[in-house]
Amino acid sequence: TVLTDLSEGVLRLTLNRPDKLNSFNEALHLALRAGFERARDDDAVRAVLLTGAGRGFCAGQDLGDRDPRKASGPPDLGRTIETFYNPLLRLMRSLEKPIVCAVNGVAAGAGANVALACDIVLAAKSARFIQAFAKIGLVPDSGGTWTLPRILGEPRAKALALTAEPLDAETAAAWGLIWKAVPDDALMDEAGALTARLAAGPTKGFGLTKRAIHAAAANTLDQQLDLERDLQRDAGRSADYAEGVAAFLDKRKPEFRGR
Ligand code: LHQ
């Protein structure tokens, strides 16, 4: 259910249930989690590219599994969230390597918020982001209620969440929700090239940079300045820093090893 390919430091994870618009069932969850665990544990992985097979990126939870008329009692969605979605989101957020998302088509419900949890999001111009939860009486999950107001402010966050209206890729980019909207036929080339570039970069420094930016949400400026000092101390001891400066002085391209 997830195609996995490691090449030149890029771990490409392709959600692969195209006839269901790559919606999440248990198997997809477990396979995607395994992919991100590999990204965390395997030094050969230096960047991740997440995308979807077929015409959609991901339509959120597979509702085919969720017919209330076939259930014996009320569902415990909290358990689903705790068992599947939250571990995935925590794993993605804590990964100290860059995650690029190529949103190839519609991203709805949890599918939209999983995309928005990636570090750099490129979307095909035809792609749409839909906070579909409201249509079935649910609350945006997978970090949506955290991400959307932070990036967009409450007015746009609430309008998207309460109306479930689709947001097109160009508006998402104009609002700062994603990095770029790109022509459909250029998406995979552009996302692939960007991820390859990141995979050849100073992975250790990238990881520390992500940590600093993530910490900022909960820090005062004073705390953040202290954190920057500590992280820069670490980064300054990396082989890639030594290589970066040496390459600059030699007027050549650096060869980063990721440590
Ligand atoms: C699907 C789905 C889908 C199954 C398309 N499931 N088959 C967390 C905890 C626990 C429970 C609940 O949820 C959550 C978090 C969530 O993610 S809640 C939100 C769940 N997702 C949605 O509500 C989105 C439902 N899908 C849609 O609204 C539309 O399919 C979108 C807007 C994504 C795409 O529309 P279209 O481009 O018109 O495609 P389509 O609707 O024709 O879908 C194509 C096929 O994919 C179709 O199957 P079929 O056999 O008729 O060709 C759909 O039934 C299937 N599909 N989403 N979530």
TrEMBL record:
It is an enzyme of class 5 (isomerase). CDD domains: crotonase-like (cd06558). It comes from the Bacteria. The keyword Ribonucleoprotein does not apply. InterPro entries: ClpP/crotonase-like_dom_sf, Enoyl-CoA_hydra/iso, Enoyl-CoA_hydra_C, PaaB1. GO terms for molecular function: isomerase activity. Pfam families: ECH_1. Its EC number is 5.3.3.18. The keyword ATP-binding does not apply. Keywords: Isomerase. Belongs to the enoyl-CoA hydratase/isomerase family. This is 2-(1,2-epoxy-1,2-dihydrophenyl)acetyl-CoA isomerase PaaG. It comes from Alsobacter ponti.
